[in-house]
Amino acid sequence: MSLKDKKLGIIGTGKMGSALIKGICDSGVIVSSNVYASDVYESALEKMRTELGINVSTDNSFTVSNSDIILLAVKPQILKSVLKSIKDHVTSEKLVISIAAGVPLHEIANELAPGTRIIRVMPNIAATVSEAASAVCPGPNASMGDAELALEMFSSVGSAIIVQEKLMDAVTGLSGSGPAYIFPVIEAMADGGVYEGLDRESALVLAAQTVLGAAKMALEFHAHPGELKDMVTSPAGTTIRGIKVLEERGVRAAFMNAVIASAKRSRELGE
């Protein structure tokens, strides 16, 4: 059964929740009339109802009761209270998906009835432009069909893969935090362009498009990044001069260490 046959309930309509709702509706994987959303902020709910045609309520129980799949898009610190409030409405027929960062599957399961089908997902902020990188981790009671539904859902707002839960901290360090590593790179590249005479707007467009284009090549060419680098780098040319400076400054090691440090902090928060 595909997502088109399912009703989706989303609890929490903050930046990530609203981005997922919009991406899912825009992609057509679930028709907007089969999407239910709840939050405490009525004005935000009404805006989405008007713009997307979804069903909205300030009552989480209403959302859960009307849905086959419940997506929990709330902050980790309030997840437990939300789970307690909906526990009696989460029947064995429903699939629960959580995107609460750092909250392991067993903690979610502890607040719901035994045997509840649960999936944990780590998307990233690029869901706001339907280019998220998401990692899907099925719980012990989730079926392969459940995992495929989650993959279909999160693939509608970018790319999604399945990982073991022990790797979710690594995912957090790499793709969860990763966009924040790239924005300073874009800014710095644009600064270099401005230094060399480009106006700020033009420099930002060129820098951002360069990063976007390089990422698309890495995904579509299925070649090692070193091979792609060599496609741009001619003997004694301009590019190799720039690469030499990056190597001298330890840029490659700095990015590796950023991912490792972020993953370490994710583990600390989960302890």
Key traits:
elongated; 14% strand; 12 helices; 8 strands; eight-stranded mixed sheet
Mind explaining what this structure looks like?
There is one protein chain. This protein has 271 residues and is of the alpha/beta class. It has 12 helices and 8 strands. It has helices spanning 15-27, 42-52, 60-65, 76-86, 105-110, 144-155, 168-176, 178-195, 200-220, 225-232, 238-248, 251-270, and strands at 8-11, 35-38, 55-57, 69-72, 95-98, 117-122, 132-138, 158-162. The protein has an 8-stranded mixed beta sheet. β2 (35-38), α2 and β3 (55-57) form a beta-alpha-beta unit. α8 crosses α9. The longest helix has 21 residues, at 200-220. It is elongated, with a radius of gyration of 21 Å.
Discrete helix count: 12
Strand order of the largest sheet: 3-2-1-4-5-6-7-8
**In what range is the share of β-strand residues?**
5-15%
Give helix % range: 40-55%
Which structural class fits the helix and strand makeup? Answer: alpha/beta
Q: Evaluate the radius of gyration.
A: 21 Å
Alpha carbon gap, first and last residue? 37 Å
Secondary structure: elements and pairs:
Elements lengths: L7 E4 L3 H13 L7 E4 L3 H11 L2 E3 L2 H6 L3 E4 L3 H11 L8 E4 L6 H6 L6 E6 L9 E7 L5 H12 L2 E5 L5 H9 L1 H18 L4 H21 L4 H8 L5 H11 L2 H20 L1
Parallel strand pairs: 1-2, 1-4, 2-3, 4-5, 5-6, 7-8
Antiparallel strand pairs: 6-7
Helix pairs in contact: 7-12, 8-9
